[in-house]
Structures are given as structure tokens and as C-alpha cells.
Amino acid sequence: MDTQSHALDTIDIAWCPGCGNFGILKAMESALSEMEISSDNLVIVSGIGQAAKIPHYMQCNAFNGLHGRALPAAVAIKASNPDLVVISESGDGDMYGEGGNHFLATIRRNPDITNIVHNNMVYGLTKGQASPTSQRGFVTPIQIGGVILEPFNPIAIAVALDASFVARAYIGDIDMTKDIIKKAISHRGYALVDIFQPCVSFNKINTYKWFKEHTYYIEDSYDPTDRVRAFEKAIDATKFPLGVIYANRKKPIFEQSLAAYEKDTTPVIKRERNLKMVQGFIDKKITQ
User: Fold this and answer.
1) How many CA atoms lie less than 13 Å away from 119 in the CB half-sphere?
2) Nearest CA to 81 among 58, 36, 105, 112?
3) For all residues of the chain together, what is the average pLDDT?
4) Least confident stretch, 11-15, 69-73, 193-197
5) Is the pLDDT at 136 greater than 60, yes or no?
6) pLDDT, tens digit (0-9, with 9 covering 90-100), for 84-126
7) How far apart (Å, rounded) are the C-alpha atoms in residues 163 and 85?
8) How far apart are the C-alpha atoms of 233 and 223, rounded to whole Å?
9) Which of 70, 95, 251, 252 has the fewest C-beta atoms under 10 angstroms from its C-beta?
10) Using N-to-C axis directions, what is the helix angle for 100-109 and 70-80, rounded to 10°?
């Protein structure tokens, strides 16, 4: 087995002690190492926020986009070079709030990327206002009377749009989270992994204990290809299901459906005409 480490030695980690992001970082590093995915062949795309700092602490190619704009960049990178392993990751606010429209469009397109969302039900970077997934009644410095809106349900939305892979994990169980991430990366098509991770500084309600008490693992006999059953799981208001909730492996892959690949399967970025164009641009800049 390739023992290449994706960990990046650093002391400048911005997360609070006890933050669930540490566990997600560990789970991602372990998953990529066990799958023998080289750093050269990996691109992690993130937006803005504490969760979006993940690629800063890993050995990989990285792209930080604007707030809520990680997914379109990830889709473009994968379409340009389908040989790459592309992971788009950020927090619940970045993906479901600012990036909500891109979340919907990406599910419909079904590119072969993995979408990891750190779901702590609060905006941690900007000091604790409610996020799209905050539960009703959650009191913040902004929502002083408590959240009154129905929380955004990414699992139900993904199943309703027939996403090709939908899963949820809880970072209190790093080994299971790692296994779910490996399944998502191995899946051909868009794969959503919504990960519950406590924010120890700004969310004193949805703690490690709360998530453990309000989640359960899907039974072994469960069939993730049953879309109706998956939707029932997704809207379960009693407890949140963990594991692979839905999978549709028959959907066409976005980048394979592009006109650019109808007669030439060579990645766009590697085509001779485009290589010459890029080199010409570089040469022009050097001479200026």
C-alpha cells in the first residue's frame, strides 16, 4: 500500500481546540492514503469559512474560490481534466447558503466529483449567527428570539433531485466517516457527504453529545437504490440517519456528455492545440 501522507506539517491551524474540523481532516487524509490517491492527482476546491481551510493543511493541489462558489470551480476543473480526483468541500453556510444555487445545479449535472460539507449548524467564521441548517429555536447574537425558519435539508433535496450518491456521517466516529468518504470518492458521479461536526465555540446546543443522541446508523439490510425509502429516511424528524442513504449509479456523467468529448476523449487541458495556446500566452507575458 502507498503510505504517502496527505498531511501537511504546520503549527498555524486556525481552528479552536475540539473543533470537529480536526476529525474531518484526519478522516480525509486517511481515506486518501488508503485509496493510494497521489497528491499530484488530487485537487481540493473550497470556498470561504473555517471548513474551507482544509486544503491549507493538506499536501494537494488546491483552489480557494469565492464564498459559495467552490462547486462551479470544481466542476470546471473536472471537465478540463477528468483524470483528476476532485473534491469540493466547505461548510454548511458556504455550500447550502451562499452556494445553494450551485449545489442544485451540480446535482443536476452529475459531474464525477465528491462534495464534502462540514455541517455544524452555525456560521463559525463570522461569530455564530444561524446557518441554513440551524435548528428551530436556536438562539444566536443575531437571531436573539431563536431561529424561526425550517432548517435546510440537504439530504432530502439531493434525493429529490436524484443525486447519484447521498450520504451522511458524524465526525464523532472518524473510522466510519473515513469509510463513507472512500465510498463517495469511489463512486462515479456526483457524491454528497454531509458531515455533522460540532462547533465548540459558537454552537453550545448541537454538541458531540447532541449529535450522538440524535443520529443512528442505517441498518445493514437497507437498500440505498430505493429512492422512495431514501426520501423517507431523509425527512425523518426523529433522528438523523448515517451512512449511504441513496445511490443511483445509472446516471450519465457530466464531463463525458460534453460536446468537447464526443470525438476526442483526451482531457481538454492536455490537447495539443490548448497546450500551444497556453504556452503562447506564457511566452507573450514573459516578453512583455
Assistant:
1) 25
2) 112
3) 91
4) 11-15
5) yes
6) 999 999 999 999 999 999 999 999 999 999 999 999 999 988 8
7) 19
8) 11
9) 252
10) 30
Instruction: Tell which residue, 211, 170, 67, has the closest CA to residue 126.
Output: 67
pLDDT at 3 over 50: no
Task: Map grid coordinates 454528497 to a residue.
Answer: 192
Q: What confidence score (pLDDT) does residue 125 get?
A: 81
Q: Where in the chain is the domain with CATH 3.40.50.970?
A: 20-252
Average pLDDT of the residues in 38-67: 93
Nearest CA-CA partner of 242 in 142, 151, 124, 119: 119
**Cβ neighbours of 245 (radius 10 Å):** 25
The Cα–Cα gap between 146 and 130 comes to 9
Across residues 28-55, what is the average pLDDT?
A: 95
pLDDT score at 14: 87
pLDDT band at 195 (very low <50, low <70, confident <90, very high): very high
| Secondary structure of the chain as H, E, C letters | CCCCCCECCCCCCCCCCCCHHHHHHHHHHHHHHHCCCCHHHEEEEECCCCHHHHHHHECCEEEECCCCCHHHHHHHHHHHCCCCEEEEEEEHHHHHHHCHHHHHHHHHHCCCCEEEEEECCCCCCCCCCCCCCCCCCCCCCCCCCCCCCCCCCHHHHHHHCCCCEEEEEECCCHHHHHHHHHHHHHCCCCEEEEEECCCCCCCCCCCHHHHHHCEEECCCCCCCCCHHHHHHHHCCCCCEEEEEEEECCCCCCCHHHCHHHCCCCCCHHHCHHHHHHHHHHHHHHHHC
